[in-house]
Amino acid sequence: MASALLYLHGFNSSPHSLKATQMREFCHRYRPDIDVLVPQLPSHPAPTIDLLSERVEAYRETHQLGLVGCSLGGFLATWLSERYQLPAVLVNPAVRPYELLQDYIGEQVNPYTQEHYHLDAADILALRELDVPTLSEPSRFWLLQQMGDEVLDYRQAVEKFNASKQTVEPHGDHSFIGFERYCEEILQFLGV
């Protein structure tokens, strides 16, 4: 069976973020057999879920598929993992983005794409509906967390994924400094 990796970027990010680029370049250089999928996620939850579900449905029958999700992408990867029983590596994941993003309701500009859009209460509600309160199989997840994350409270992720594999580093920041150190291990964990 062929292998595929679905990488989910964070809020107001893009496929051109540093970690996405590092993952793509690692696979291109060392594992060219892996289809690396890094879609530009829509700015609203409903079309994002439609897009991700379509991608997973298109690949899961013919490919060994693994997920990598960063920040908001980690929240989305958790939902996808539960829905499709896929392994997932979560990098400084948002655990309750529907609380954090309350402060972002209103006009937004994605700094990568320059897209202008409006985040509203319906988006927050849509995110809340994607919450996975209890993991059905914690061993499907690997948490990569840096305690110096200035955007998210790292303790939320450590608590939620307490029965999963965890690598928690002191210091660091929300970008997860040194992510490229883990590319090979990520592929091994995901089995792709």
Short description:
The chain has 192 residues and is an alpha/beta fold.
SSE arrangement:
Elements: E1 2-8, H1 18-30, E2 34-37, H2 45-59, E3 63-70, H3 72-84, E4 88-91, H4 97-100, E5 106-109, E6 116-119, H5 121-129, E7 141-146, H6 154-160, E8 165-169, H7 183-190
Parallel strand pairs: 1-2, 1-3, 3-4, 4-7, 7-8
Antiparallel strand pairs: 5-6
Structural write-up:
The chain is of the alpha/beta class. Helices cover 36% and strands 22% of the residues. It has helices at 18-30, 45-59, 72-84, 97-100, 121-129, 154-160, 183-190; strands at residues 2-8, 34-37, 63-70, 88-91, 106-109, 116-119, 141-146, 165-169. The strands form 2 sheets. Strands 2-1-3-4-7-8 form a 6-stranded parallel beta sheet, with helices on both faces. The longest helix has 15 residues, at 45-59. It starts with a strand and ends with a helix.
- What is the residue-averaged pLDDT? 96
Quote the distance from N terminus to C terminus: 10 Å
Report the radius of gyration as a whole number of Å.
15 Å
- Cα shape: globular
Q: How many DSSP E strands?
A: 8
Low-confidence stretches: none
**Oligomeric composition of the shown chains:** single chain
Q: Which structural class fits the helix and strand makeup?
A: alpha/beta
Give the number of helices: 7
Topology pattern, helix = H, strand = E: EHEHEHEHEEHEHEH
Strand residues, percent: 15-25%
Strands ordered across the widest β-sheet: 2-1-3-4-7-8
Largest sheet: 6 strands, parallel
How much helix is in the residues?
25-40%
